[in-house]
Amino acid sequence: MNGQSRELILKLLEEKAVLKQEVSDRTSAGFNAIKSSLSAIHSELASSMLKNKTVNYLLNFVDKGEFEAEFSVVDDTLVFLRHSNVFTFESSHEMWKSSYVKDNPSLSFCGKIYIYNFLSDSFKYNRANDVGYLIARIFINKENHFFIEGKRQLGFLYNDFENAVFDEAAVRKVIESCIIYSLDFDPYTPPYEKMTMLTVQEVLDSSIQSKFITGKRLGFRFQQDK
After folding, report:
1. Which of these ranges, 67-71, 133-137, 180-184, 201-205, has the smallest mean pLDDT?
2. Rounded to whole angstroms, how far apart are CA atoms 60 and 120?
3. Cβ 48 vs Cβ 157: under 8 Å
4. Rounded CA gap, 217 and 52, in Å?
5. Which long-range contacts link 58-66 to residues 24+ away (Cβ below 8 Å)?
6. Hey, where are the domains in the chain?
7. Above 70 in pLDDT, residue 219?
8. Secondary structure of the chain in the HEC alphabet?
9. With the CA atoms of 37, 42, 45 and 48 taken in that order, what torsion angle do they form, in degrees rounded to the nearest 10?
10. How does pLDDT run across 180-201, given as a tens digit for each residue?
11. Can you tell me the distance from the alpha carbon of 147 to that of 166, in angstroms, rounded to the nearest whole number?
């Protein structure tokens, strides 16, 4: 390797390493802010439900560490997952139409936080084959700007990448939008043809609940839910 190539490689490695660390730190801070907000929302809702004599076990928040958190409300469980890697976008992505990214391509590098919606009973009855639905994924760059790809209002309320900052107020608003969406996203009974067979072993098995495969839109195309 000649000196010029070595210097170029070292320069690129240093630039990318610093950039990706900055993005990773921002995403980690954003995820911690999400967990803090979830904890606060849990306390607020639990207090209100107790006043109204609503059963408190309908709410639960579990901080599962650096990359995962769960928030359950009534029949729904939201699972928040932070990806450990940093990503950029293909050239056809909408973000490249913005001067914010065109003028500084390093701003296209983002960390990701996924939000999935499961039925709470899927965890309660250990139904390992049940499915959850990705309702939103949050992208955060080194300047702590963010946008969201998601379902319904989650996909169009949070798409101002150039100006939107993932601060405490934004975190709270995003989480509330996710909770409202999941509560309004009702389960459909699967088509009859999807549930016509059951094995003898499944009937004999004492944990037959775990054999049912359930999801809010099982057997339906999720993208139809606009």
Report:
1. 201-205
2. 10
3. no
4. 32
5. 63/35, 63/39, 66/28, 66/31
6. 3-224
7. no
8. CCHHHHHHHHHHHHHHHHHHHHHHHHHHHHHHHHHHHHHHHHHHHHHHHHHCCCCHHHEEEEECCCCEEEEEECCEEEEEEEEEEEECCCCCCHHHHCHHHHCCHHHHCEEEEEEEEEEHHHHHCCCCCCCCEEEEEEEECCCCEEEEEECCHHHHCCCCCCCCECCHHHHHHHHHHHHHHHHHCCCCCCCHHHHCCCCHHHHHCCCHHHHCCCCCCCCCCHHHCC
9. -120
10. 999 987 766 666 666 566 565 6
11. 9
- The edge-to-edge listing of strands for the beta sheet with 146-150 is 59-63, 68-73, 76-87, 110-119, 133-140, 146-150
Query: Can you tell me the distance from the alpha carbon of 193 to that of 225, in angstroms, rounded to the nearest whole number?
Result: 21
Question: Residues 147, 95: contact at Cβ < 8 Å?
Answer: yes
Give, rounded to a whole angstrom, the gap between the first and last alpha carbons of the chain.
Answer: 54
